């Protein structure tokens, strides 16, 4: 008689576990909505970071051009004047 009681107990535990661990369509839809919001937030942050980096790259390019012009002027002065 212990076996049917043990099986019934395990069956109840298994059904409780399955009810709590299986996601419903509503759960999945809610999670999908949350993930879309998070992804759109991350896209906005990345676009802002990329814009900052582009500004810094422009400054670095400008500095490089000024340095090249300075070196060229020194080379021309050394060889042609």
Helix content: over 70%
Average pLDDT, all residues: 84
What is the 3D shape?
rod-shaped
The major sheet is characterized as: none
The chain-level structural class is: mainly alpha
Report the total helices. 2
Distance between the termini: 112 Å
SSE order, one letter for each helix or strand: HH
Low-confidence stretches: none
Strand content: under 5%
Rg (C-alpha, Å): 34 Å
Give the number of domains.
1
Number of separate strands: 0
Characterization of the model:
The protein has one domain (2-80). Helix content is 94%, strand content 0%. The relative contact order is 0.04. The mean pLDDT is 84. The chain has 81 residues and is mostly helical. It has two helices and no strands.
List the helices and strands and how they pair.
Layout: H1 2-21, H2 25-80
Which short descriptors sum up this protein?
single chain; 81 residues; mainly alpha
Concise synopsis of the structure shown:
The protein is mainly alpha-helical and 81 residues long. The protein contains 2 helices and no strands.
């Amino acid at each position: 008689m212990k076996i049917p009681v043990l099986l019934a107990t395990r069956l109840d535990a298994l059904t409780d576990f399955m009810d709590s661990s299986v996601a419903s369509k509503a759960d999945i839809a809610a999670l999908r909505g949350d993930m879309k919001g998070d992804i759109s937030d991350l896209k906005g942050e990345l676009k802002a970071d990329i814009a900052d980096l582009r500004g810094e790259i422009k400054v670095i390019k400008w500095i490089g051009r000024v340095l090249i012009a300075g070196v060229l002027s020194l080379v021309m002065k050394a060889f042609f004047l």
